[in-house]
Amino acid sequence: MNAATGYSNVIEFQAGLSGAIATQFGSSSLPPIKTPFLRITGSGRDLVTLDLSSFQVLKLAAINGGLFALEDINVVNGVGNRGGCLNSEFGAVLLLNRVCFADCIALASGAMAAEGGAI
Description:
mainly beta; six-stranded parallel β-sheet; two-stranded parallel sheet; disordered N terminus
């Protein structure tokens, strides 16, 4: 990760990198993103796909808001009760630039009802 203006953490894919990134957390959720500022920049929406598989969701959980930016990437196959691919808590700001979300499903789970307001 590299420090950049406005973001305390940056994940940037090398130009020309292509393929799918599959999460490896089985049927549980990914750990919450708690850093106050994070930017993830792919190498191109038509090149890099983040495959969340079943019951995975990117959860923004920085206390007192925060800023999360996604750029030049596809995010697919997320399933969660608060948005299928992306869920923001505590007022985090989300910036999207050349991002495609596909096949993301908000689904009830146990006593938790499916809720809107997320992606």
